[in-house]
Predict the 3D structure of the following.
Amino acid sequence: MKHQAGVGFEDNGAGSALVLEIKGNSLDDGPGIRSVVFFKGCPLDCVWCHNPESKKRGYELSFDAGLCVACGACLGECPEKALSRKARGFIRRERCTLCFRCAGACPSGALSRVGRNMSIDDIMEKVRRDIPFYKTSGGGVTLSGGEPTVYMDFLSSLASSLKKEKIHTLLETCGLFDMNRFSEKVYPHLDQIYFDIKFFDDALHRKYCGASNRTILENFTKLHDMLLAGGIPVLPRTPLVPGITDGEKNISAIAAFLRSRNVKKAALLAYNPLWHGKNDKIGVVNRYSKEKAMRSFMKQERVDACREIFRAAGIELVQAE
Amino acid sequence: MNSCTAVSETARGRGATNVMVHLLLKLMAGLYNRRASLREYLRWDGGWINFSIGVETEQGTVRQGITFCDGRVTVHPFVPEGAEAVLVFMDEAAVRNMVSSPPNELFNLLMKNRVVPRGSIAYLQLFNFLLSVLLKKKHIKMLRKASKKERSAKIACSGSAVPAKKATYLKAGARDNGVKYLEDAYLSGYSLEDFPRLKEFLDIHFTVRPALCHERPLLLTEWFLENGFEKDAEGNAQVPELRQARAFRYLMEKRKPIIRKNDLLAGTTTTKEIGVVLYPDSHGTMIWGELFTTPYRLLNPYDIDAETVEVLHKKVFPFWLRRNIREAVRDREAYPLCQQLDERFAVYFLWKTVALSHTIVDYPKILSLGTAGIMKEIDSALEKTTAKDREKRDLLVAMKITFQGINAYAANLAVQASVESEAEKDPVRKNELERLAAVCRRVPFQPARTLDEAVNALWIVWVGIHMENTNAGFSLGRLDQWLQPYFEADMKKLKSAAAREEYTRHALELIGCFYMRCTDHLPLVPDIGNYLFGGSSSDQAITLGGVTPDGRDAVNDMTYIFLKVTEMLKIRDPNVNARYHNGINSEAYLRRLAEVNLNTTATPSIHNDEAVMASLAEFKYPAEHLRDWSATGCVEPTLSGRHIGHTNCMMFNMVAALEMAMNNGRHPLMRWDVGPQTGSADKGDFGTFEKFYRAFCAQFNFLAGQACSYNNMLGRAHQVIRPTPFLSGMIDGCMESGLDVTKGGARYNSSGTACIGLADVTDSLMAIKKLVFDDKKISFSEMLRAVRRNFRDDAALLALIKNRVPLFGSGSPEALDMANRVIEFAHDCFGNNTNYRGGKYTAGFWSMSNHVAFGNLTGALPSGRLAGKPFTPGLTPEAHASKSLLDNIRDVSLLKVENMNNNIAFNVKVVPAPGDSHEAAVEHIHSYAKSYIELGGMQVQFNVVSSAVLRDAMANPDQYRDLLVRISGYNAYFVTLNRDMQLELIERAEFGV
């Protein structure tokens, strides 16, 4: 898979990776208390993506109007005159060269650079501090994104470093990666995988996620087979996105696919609409964002109906979070 | 009473306000002079009350006085020389404000230093009383109106209703070694529904309004009037210990023996269902001015009947005008600076004006020997003395007299139980009363043999303790350890599983009754106290778990019985503290602590046993005594039965030292250049951060020195006004040393402080260091200008501080170092002071509710905290320090325990996700607590409640009468708190679990 490196970011292979943030004390990304490393960059382009700022593999400039104290400190800093109170979202993105001088001058953090180039040591230093919490709670580190496998070599070193320190490591993946490299470099160091399956139908996957799902389904099958051969647990997860993935046809097809692979457990993730503001901050326009279904919480009946389909297929639903 | 001397004239005031005050005083004088019924208030059973009060402004524009002399009231256009008290107003506006404000707002004027009292507070209270005789109708009307206004203000802050969850109970997975009889140690099969008696008591607890009780002060005053206070009837100087002992015996013999309807324990602290105990020898007269209005005050009102008003004013209070701890210091030490500072509220508050309590008696000794055994010990000690051991002999005799007193009370209770059992129709209750009569005939005189006897003995002694000394922070100690032998003795006699199950039920009910008994009294809180320490009860700490004196796992059957009762009753007091010894106590026990905390929302507070003991290493206590420590009042360690640590002798505002360092020794709110001149930031005196830090230390040192001197003066006043021979008889060391505990007779002595505002001080120092000195973003004087303007027009600077300054609790090593530096300094600074009993001062970092009160009296800070906002509770990091709770937990756990020898209060507000199971929530809380302890953290208290629920409770207090919250060290019912405290709880950082 080839990715275009973004402006201002040097891809150093195994040496460093672009990280959105490391979130401590997460109780929703695997067992126990966990630290979640969110990588920046993703091969997919899902329209409902809750972390739109994690898609692009490169730095971005974010403006959070809620934090701005209107001090004007940034205005004089910008050599391109790209900042203006008149501009929608404050930044004239076409002029911005991502020099981030404005972010340096901003006292409130309203203007900020999205993405941090981090080395293995940087990440280890941060997550190591919480080892006592992992230990007492049965938690560990979750590698998420974006898509962690975008940085396959780096991911390999990171996962092996975590393994050395006996930290439980869970990978959350969209499933689109080179299986050979993955199974050789990363898989041996992992303890658990959460694997997203969004559509069964390839055309729909191309339409809503910007890529074919054939590799994804193949990869899942392989990982599941490895599990059956004594490998690590792999949990398939399907996000229920109203009007997009939650249709009976799609859910039934996924359930049938899982059943055909002899999968016993899966997770369904109910949609929440609390992400739209993030698009504005990085100046991204998402036409789906305007749809009413995308702006409301899912109806419980709809969730229940989807769950019923899985149950009928003999698949146990677990809290995947 | 003092004689009325001719009043000599001093300078006069001028202007309209001066004339207004003169006319108002004239009006008052006229009414008292003309109406015989009013004039009656000017005398008590001991004769006319003679005194003068002055009123003036700082500028001298107002100067008026009023003199009460042999029933005549005279007004003077000047402040009478030698006036007992003078009210000094900041300016004329403050005078006019005072005249038109309802009584509750007067406290605000006082606290904010807009009016400053000079001289006797007891006389001021008397003057207030005489004013309220005239104004009570108006005041009550004003209070009703204010109450309505407050109600709507609270509704305005509130949110929408939140459905309550039903409690679920886990079963114990494993059994601790010390658990001998309980099959499921978690006792998951029991709930409150199984105990109708306890349900009934709980209902009383939540619905009956506390009432002021005059029994104690009346009986004591009677005795002192008859037998003399300073001198006896023959004119010889009284020996304070003997005098107090005889008065105590008289009180115990004469007081009404009451058995609450349906109770399994005999005896009550007062004659009321829930009584407020009055101690005019300490702070009792503080309520004088409020006697008429106290049922109408906004927060925690008290009932009072006409008889009590009459008794207190005519028979009690006047006797104590000068015979109380505070006024004794004022008279003996000529109104020292350290006392003046205390009475300005903003820098420190000395609890010793109220009590020398906060300790734990040797209960195991009382239970195993009985008072008979202790009296025998006293006799043999007496035999060894000679005539020249006068002081020792007096104390030993005094101790003995007090035990006679407690025995007499128990005997009266036994008679009462017999009388009631004879009249009782219900056979079950009749039987209970007969058994109670038998129990009270035996204990506390004889050693206890059964759990019923032991618990009744505990309670009767507890009543006695509170008859001798103020109910503020006396603690119960390691009751699970001390009661287990009686539990086992009872169990051993039972042959069948059914009988053992029935006995377990009885043990739960008995301990439940004991908890509810402990709620039968409340400390006297004058209305100003509602703003300083709102919602606090007497804080009778019980300590569970930990290790035995020889270092083994101490968790036993009774530990779990206490935990179950704590879980079912969910009451604020007794304040339950659990010791967890990592590696020795079981995971099952810690998990149970997490579950009880979850189900009660706020208790127990969890202590890391090893860390607490390590914090006391410098004292080199023998290991077997150290391992016997118990939490006292809020969280502070006391070596049970051997130690007078008065662990809450003062609440100390560390932020005041910072404010004074920023203002060259001047305290802004007090408008007082009281501290040393340590340099002016405005004039550029601080070239480096270190220079400024030294200025902070110098101010801290000055304030701490003053606070310790005042504490020592108050301590010496206790020796004269109220030594405590009953208590001394139950604390190891006094019999050998022959000294009362107030004189250092205990085996171990220390005084404990609560240093408040650690996070606020650390963050402010970090802001100054980073922005002014390291990064040179702004000058010190610019920073101070912004602080003085409360960051008005300085949004960018405020944002810069909040974003760029690493805070304590964020995981920043630099901020952590700074916090460690501050606590080390505080520890050493207090440790260098010696108390009047020869002990050291210790430093604690918890705040009761004074982080709100002190915050209210403090200007904006370099940390970005705005003027008047609360500090963080205890040493809890600022809410925005980090998004991750783990950073908070880690930083607090890395504070050096050797500098926190009076413990800490780390508050964590956690909220289970709506979809989470009970098991998952317990597991998460357990994990946080366990990790924190493994990292070396000392104490933690979880508030398991969301801001949404708290907001709903603000609007609908009636539906949340039992919503329990941790303030900082103690528990309170949320709905009893003042609005600032409620908002502080709501604004605390909230983390999901």
